[in-house]
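Lab manual, section 2.4: Encoding a predicted structure.

Procedure: take the sequence of the chain (202 residues), apply the prediction step described in section 2.3, and record the output as structure tokens. A sample record is shown.
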Amino acid sequence: FYLRRTVNVDKLLSIRSELNQELVTQDVKLSINDFIIKAAAKALQDNKSCNSVWAGDRILRFKQADIAVAVAIEDGLITPVLKNASLKSLTDISKEMKNLASKARTKKLLPEEYIGGSFSISNLGMMGVESFDAIINPPQASILAVGATCKKPLINQSGEVYIANVMSLSLSADHRVIDGATGAVFLGAIAENLANPFKLLL
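Recorded output:
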């Protein structure tokens, strides 16, 4: 089944810009995807029943958040796995992800670098795709599809219209492992982490 929502990422873009100014001397540039990985990893730790896979006749739950990230390569797609992502800083995630993506594109990934993972992220935002639904990568039970960040009109609590940077999120989930309400809470946690990125710096 599929769950969809949008999130205001104004704070995320602002913090990312500030952090990247500070990280110039370290030759590190945080991407939006780095924040998404960290937000998903934290949400998996806070919603442990979603950190699971379908093992044919039973559910296997994991303690650490190993996140597979879709990388487009010349002849298809591969999902290198960022292990224990919830315990890594944004800087560590950025460095490791850039290394894995580079190895993926040059076909130098080792099997242990792309096998496993309890959750996947597929981001087509950089290609201008505003929203889409991703296909689950078995035996995983869910995958997050991330669309492009676009400026859209929103209405605040006072009824005033303002313009914000909005990102679309879509969670594809296997109902044998994750039910609708659980998936909604999980997706909400990811969105909350992205809307309030200070949580990802703690």
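Check your result against the sample. The CA atoms of residues 37 and 85 lie 7 Å apart.
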